[in-house]
Design brief:
- The protein is an alpha+beta fold and 214 residues long.
- The protein folds into two domains: 5-164, Regulatory protein AraC (Jelly Rolls, Sandwich), CATH 2.60.120.280; 175-213, no CATH class.
- It has six helices and nine strands; from the N terminus they run E-H-E-E-E-E-E-E-E-H-H-E-H-H-H.
- Strands 1, 2, 3, 4, 5, 6, 7, 8 and 9 form a nine-stranded mixed β-sheet that branches.
- The longest helix has 19 residues, at 120-138.
- Residues 33, 35, 39, 73 line the site of nickel (II) ion.
């Protein structure tokens, strides 16, 4: 466990609140820390170095991490890094559900399942659900607690559907842009050959450039 421990009293608006959105627009470099709550990280833009339990990940749009309270992580070399943390306290959940079934880091033997990627379609769905969740955080009323947990569950299920392991981008029907990002982060040490990539993925350079601009 790291020296710096972030406390739920500083990040949740009440002792009952079970889930909250902590937007980092941007996420600055941040010292190594653990938490007394759990955290899901979704990267929207920019890049940086995310060190998690001693392993460094170069992160960019579409990266997704499920962080357990006791995990130790930090951010360095950030460049316009924009992300959202969805933070939660499992003991505060009121909705009876088998939460570990949709949170891979909580499942038994989950040591390797912290880091994932989310397809573009998944990003679109996640954005809409997180917007609603953020709204519930800001305008709480009698039903906000239940609605927030329901939205969180929707988010977890959407993530489960659209996420993929960083090394297995081809398992699902990803857009060519998802494939490109996965390819680049899996082969940081080699030069990138655009022609070879396009031939292998049967796409034209023009389409790829267009998607990149969008
Ligand atoms: C920080 C950083 C940490 C997170 C807290 C809630 O800016 O993103 O990882 O634990 O916010
Ligand atoms: Ni953290």
């Amino acid at each position: 466990m790291s020296g710096l421990v972030l406390r739920k009293s500083e990040f949740f608006i009440s002792p009952q609140q079970s889930v909250a959105v902590a937007g980092r627009y941007p996420q600055p470099a941040f010292a190594e820390h653990s938490h007394d709550f759990c955290e899901l990280i979704l990267v929207w833009r920019g890049n940086g170095l995310h060190k998690l339990n001693g392993r460094a990940y170069r992160i960019t749009r579409g990266d997704l991490f499920y962080i357990r309270a006791e995990d130790v992580h930090s951010y360095a070399s950030v460049n316009d890094l924009v992300l959202q943390n969805i933070i939660w306290c499992p003991k505060r959940f009121q909705l009876a559900f088998d939460w570990p079934a949709v949170i891979p880091a909580e499942a038994p033997g989950a040591a390797m399942s912290r880091a994932w990627r989310l397809s573009s379609q998944g990003m679109t769905q996640a954005r809409s659900i997180i917007n609603q969740l953020e709204h519930e955080n800001h305008c709480p009323d009698a039903f906000s607690h239940t609605l927030s947990e329901t939205l969180f569950l929707q988010l977890l299920i959407a993530l489960r559907r659209y996420r993929y392991r960083p090394d297995r981008a081809r398992d699902k029907e990803e857009s060519v842009l998802d494939l490109l990002i996965a390819h680049l982060s899996a082969s940081l040490d080699c030069a990138f050959d655009l022609d070879a990539f396009c031939a292998e993925n049967r796409c034209s350079e023009r389409v790829l450039r267009q998607q990149f601009r969008d």
